[in-house]
Amino acid sequence: MKHSITSVGLDVHKDSIEIALAEHGGSQEVRRYGAIGGDLASLDKAVRKLQSKGTELRFVYEAGPCGYDIYRHLTKQGLSCAVVAPSMIPKKSGDRIKTDRRDAVALARLYRAGELTPVYVPREEDEAMRDLSRAREDA
What pLDDT digit, counting tens, does each position of 82-124 carry? Predict the structure, then answer.
């Protein structure tokens, strides 16, 4: 049996996560998996479904206001996950239409192609200290 890899693009929002899949090898089309709830239980259910296909999963999503909870949750399960900065995602000139579906498909496609550079994910203690510093500045 051949070892196969699937890049999983996640467009993450507070209430929903849009998922797209890009299989490695060949020139398979990137396809939309669907939208799920924005909670970790919904993500776990989708991950179990994807793992049942027997491929290695590599997750990627944009850094944003939702933080690094998804990254930490997936890596604790032994899954590969990368967080990328939105400013570092290559975009075509004139491509101004932004939808969740398009963003997830673009993330999966670009990650499969090796076009995305992951950002450093701070430890929980570092993030807590950063939040405290920001709260002090606001006060």
Answer: 999 988 888 877 666 678 889 999 999 999 999 999 999 888 8
Contacts of residue 56, Cβ cutoff 8 Å, sequence gap at least 6: 3, 4, 5, 6, 80
Assign 1 a pLDDT band (cuts: 50, 70, 90): very low
Beta strands in 1-139 (DSSP E): 5-12, 16-23, 31-37, 56-62, 80-84
pTM assigned to the model: 0.86
Q: Is the separation of the CB atoms in 75 and 87 below 8 Å?
A: no
Query: From CA 59, how far away is CA 107, in angstroms rounded?
Result: 9
Of 27, 24, 10, nearest to 107 by C-alpha is 10
CA 6 vs. chain centroid, Å, equals: 13
Residues with Cβ < 8 Å from 111, sequence gap 6 or more?
7, 9, 22, 58, 60, 82, 84
User: DSSP 3-state assignment of 12?
Assistant: strand
